[in-house]
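Structure ticket #2291
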Amino acid sequence: MFPIVLFIAWTMNAQAAEQSVVLSGVHVAVWVPEAAGRHPLIIFSHGLHGCSTQSSFLMQAFTAAGYVVLAPDHRDAGCRGGVDEPPQAPLREPELWSEATYRDRADDIRRVIEAAVADDRFAPRVDAARIGLVGHSLGGYTVLGLAGAWPSWRLPGIKAVLALSPYSAPYVVKRLLGRVTVPVMYQGGTLDRGFTPYVRRAGGAYEQSPLPKYYVELDEAGHLAWTDNARTDRSAMIYYSIAFLNRYVRGDAEDTVLTRALPGVSLLRYATERGSGTAGEQGDGPGASPGRLFLGH
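Resolution: structure written out below.
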């Protein structure tokens, strides 16, 4: 493993060519590593009224680390003339959400994976036995549902889920995250007062999720920190994301960063078969109480 500073500089400076394709009727942004051979596959799900390319800095980092990345534009996407309509259920009433709420997003991901592994352009480059899901905001809700939180959505063959400031409230209030069947890493921010508290709090998404699980809270990060529009320091965000995916999607040995807090991380929690712990600040912080909900990119 590279020293941390060199690794982050390498991933942030590496540039993979972005492609735009249509798979099974869905517009998809694609990043493919330059190296020949098959690579693990990452599917990225954007936020409400976001876009497949909203977090291209992170997609570039995944590709530089050796992953094929496919990011579909969901029906609600703010680009490509997506449908600009109110949420399918009230954000402040998560108890009203059900398996029917944004099922179209889950269907998009299922169709894109099935099409990609059968497409001559991508099948020779994708290792279909190693697939991870990444989602931001409503995309986090989407990938958690596919990981088993909504049983009828569960997508077999997924190795891990990375949920970035996810809208987890429906699963938390209904206590559904115990049904998740794969390793999960949650990331939140101290300034993300709408979504992070549902992950962080006692009885929240992190505590409800089975092992192995991780929670990374980034200092001074708001809800948009995971998008290209943010000015947040992305170093720790990128490093933890890739270390988690390498461990559970690629199958590498565990990076020690998964059990210690890097600069810029206010709180790290982890619980695996090998043990559990907490690093960084203790107790409730600035992100401890729910506030305005915002799912956009």
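Closing remark: The chain is about 25% helix and 25% strand.
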